[in-house]
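Module 6 notes. Inverse folding takes a fixed backbone as the condition and produces residue identities as the prediction. Think of it as a translation problem where the source language is geometry and the target language is the twenty amino acids. Below is one complete input and output pair. Work through it position by position during the lab.
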């Protein structure tokens, strides 16, 4: 009777280990993406702060590949604000994804603990 229990526990622990490794990789990836988005948001914010101090008649160019396109100050400002808003939304999504991943790992650990407790009670 002990052999089937051991095999079942061994299988459950192997599944948990695989899930933990996968989740840790996903969490690290999400952290890197959040960091990158935060830098992009900060860059857009600093650029916006510098642009607001310039007069409205200033010629501004937007980089597009290996060329520059003449844009109005309002258009550049709008693009920078959109960039910041998009970065905020993506950061929020990634944080929710991280909490979901952490919760799923915790649930798997709790299930294995319950299995161990029920085996000990028998």
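Target side of the pair, the amino acids:
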């Amino acid at each position: 009777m002990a052999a089937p229990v051991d095999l079942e526990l061994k299988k459950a622990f192997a599944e948990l280990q695989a899930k933990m490794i996968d989740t840790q990789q996903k969490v690290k990836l999400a952290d890197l993406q959040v960091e990158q988005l935060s830098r992009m948001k900060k860059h857009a914010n600093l650029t916006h702060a510098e642009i607001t101090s310039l007069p409205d008649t200033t010629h501004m160019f937007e980089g597009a590949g290996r060329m520059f396109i003449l844009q109005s100050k309002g258009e550049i400002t709008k693009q920078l604000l959109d960039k910041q808003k998009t970065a905020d939304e993506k950061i929020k999504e990634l944080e929710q994804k991280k909490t979901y991943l952490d919760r799923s790992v915790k649930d798997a650990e709790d299930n294995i603990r319950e299995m161990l407790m029920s085996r000990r009670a028998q």
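Reference fact for the lab report: The CA atoms of residues 53 and 86 lie 24 Å apart.
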